[in-house]
Design goal:
79% helix; mainly alpha
Length: 135
């Protein structure tokens, strides 16, 4: 599959993930106001699971090869998860805590900033084509 088509699919899943993450963040912030970093972390985890399911079945569907789904989920969490958690938490602390931007606007900026790195990590590692051991 051409990289540009895959990038488009990644961004379509990502757009749905943004809606999931912002809705979850708003809900968690309503439940526990003032704890925006904890709310951000919980919203990220929900979004990671949402996006993983869509990426396996849509974005990188052509790379399903029978390898363990748990291994791909682990690689996805170690790559996209770490980038998303570290990037979002750091940027939220800066944008909300110091710059006093509105919560959802700040989170939208943080998501965008992490997206390119997440695509590259997904394509090259989390959903990389498995090479036969005999080749």
């Amino acid at each position: 599959m051409k990289l540009l088509i895959r990038w488009g699919k990644f961004n379509l899943v990502g757009a749905a993930g943004v809606v999931v993450q912002l809705a979850a963040l708003a809900a968690f912030n309503r439940i526990a106001p003032g704890h925006y970093l904890m709310a951000t972390a919980a919203a990220i985890e929900i979004t990671l699971l949402h996006n993983f399911a869509w990426h396996v079945n849509y974005t990188w569907r052509d790379r399903r090869d029978g390898s363990a789904l748990t291994g791909r989920l682990l690689r996805f969490h170690l790559s996209n998860g770490l980038v998303s958690f570290a990037g979002n938490i750091a940027l939220m602390r800066l944008l909300v805590g110091h710059a006093h931007l509105p919560l959802l606007a700040a989170n939208s900026i943080a998501i965008f900033c992490c997206s390119i790195v997440n695509f590259l990590l997904s394509d090259c590692w989390a959903f990389a084509r498995v090479r036969p051991t005999w080749a």
